[in-house]
Protein 1
Amino acid sequence: MGKTAMLTSRITPETSDRLQRLAKITQRSKSHLTEQALEQYLDLNEWQISGINAAIHDADKNDASFIDHDQVMQQWVAKREN
């Protein structure tokens, strides 16, 4: 492992217990599991925010087209009925 940074965080006793149990079962350190969880959380949220920003950018274009909510719902209901 390369350089590391210290992170202090407050968690509930229940979360702490769950982390301890998982560390024991997986034979990994709590630090390893915490870093892995943070990486997954950051990956997901960065991906989601990137997608939202791209959609906003597309919606802000002069030639953007939009579909009425009621029309989308009708199509969705029709698709589910088939």
Protein 2
Amino acid sequence: MVETADIQDRDSGFCYTIKEYESKKSEDDNGWKHEVIVLKPISSDPSYENIYLKEDDLLSFKIIGIFEFIIE
């Protein structure tokens, strides 16, 4: 689960969203860094789009939880 004050979920109006996380990293002499993070919707609704976060965007997003499995 990701939180941001800059974007509201279009369905709920809240600043939280659950997406699949993908990261592209690069490494240099100073260590590694994210080139881009992609937050992918977990939905069959084609109107939902990926959210692409670049370096400046990352400061306003906070990971607040990780979905691992459903408890039955």
Protein 3
Amino acid sequence: MKKADGILLGSPVYSANISANMQALLERSAVVCDMNAGLMTYKAGASVAAVRRAGSLQAIDAMNHFFLNHEMIVVGSTYWNMAYGQMPGDVLKDEEGINNMRNLGKNMAFLLKRIAGKTV
């Protein structure tokens, strides 16, 4: 994360929020960031969630708060960055979700080029 220009965080939603592993990553990373002021400043950040029914907005919000609390630039898309599915691979059938992810990727690439000072 320290060397990255941009960070994409993703989590499945099990109990109406991010997974325990993602929570642990965010909490540990936050401690490192708090001890190293400016470590994440001006980096691009985007979050995505895979969800069966509910909790995706809470999950995206939790990951975005990490970005915002460390002075990062949050990248968005045309809708919430989530895809629906119950079983592994089901999210690939969520056409709207997949299209939103493609757009998110384009937006992330655009911002990373701008941050690097390249013409888009």
